Amino acid sequence: MRMPWHQGDVLDLASVGVRVDSLTDVSAIPGGPGARLTAIRTQAVAFRQEFLGTGTPDSVTTCDLVTLPYPTRFGLFRASRAIAPFLAITNRMLVIRWAESDGTPRVLLFEPSDVELGRYTPYFDKLVERTPDVVSKRVVTEHGTVVGHLSRLGIDPAEVDYLMFDHLHTQDLRRWIGTTTHQADLGGQPKPVFPRAKVIVQRDELAAMADLHPMQRPWYQPGAYRDVSPESFLPIDGSVVFGPGVAVVKTPGHVFGNQSLVLNTSTGVWVSSENVIAAECLTPEFSRMPGIARWAREWGQEIVLNANTIETTVDQYNSIILEKTLADRSQRDSRFAQFFPSSELTAAWTNPGTSPTFAHGAITHR
């Protein structure tokens, strides 16, 4: 399958923001993953100090999209002793606004998932086939759409500069960025909802999507990217500060090109990704969910990762430590970090034993 960004192609696109030099590629550090973990802790402290000096964005708004089931064995890895085979997660979009030094306004959408098209991800598509409609209606709740939320916020889609996801699992972007040819399943050739927006993505993930490994295939929709223009993507390498209090840091592991959003707000530094599904997974010793604290203690693990694809588990662990070191503690409960899962664990009566001890629910900054 030839993707628009085939490995032999050269993508000559404009750069964005300022590269973060204090967060270097630790893969070349001798001594193995333990040495890389030590280096990550040191680098995270250095970057955090630099980042605090960049200022804060104008606003951060949280928009709920959908609550849906997710396997417990994935979301809580090997730690949970809950009897429920599924837990519930809520996918949310963050709308971040800031101004450049020359006054130019910017709008970034983090996790603007097209929920309708995301259902055709191979894993979820098969799950839906096995689930009666009456059950699906009870366990899936749609809260709002990307376009609907923007309308409520008074943002014209033409004002959006950037779309960003921590990774492209489940994402189908054809309606957001348009296509180059007719799309039979969409009944035509969709014009882009976001005509000037660029999709910020790590170059490593684009390369991986050009030739998916069998362990990756259940979670991507590669066919949805055949007819999109490469000019719609803005590939980056590593970590970048976009604007005052807004950055992306590379956090490989969950996928090779995973990335996390970092925000400096009125309550301090937040980090957001899908590396874990609950804030307590960064401090499992405080979790009241069955098995979590005990598992972390017995195995000497300081985090509980989200592991639907175990591409490079050690790197994902190390990336979560980077996120944990960058984030401030919650002002509501200092036991938990200001880590905002892009898919956050949500209490549901259908899923006993998986109710979170603590949930953020939203990031709000004005």
UniProtKB/TrEMBL annotation:
Q: Which cofactor does it need?
A: Zn(2+)
Which keywords does this chain's UniProt record carry? Hydrolase, Metal-binding, Zinc
Q: Which GO terms describe its molecular function?
A: hydrolase activity; metal ion binding
Q: Does the keyword Transmembrane apply?
A: no
| Protein family according to the UniProt entry | Belongs to the metallo-beta-lactamase superfamily.
Protein name in UniProt: Metallo-beta-lactamase superfamily protein
Organism of origin: Nocardia alba
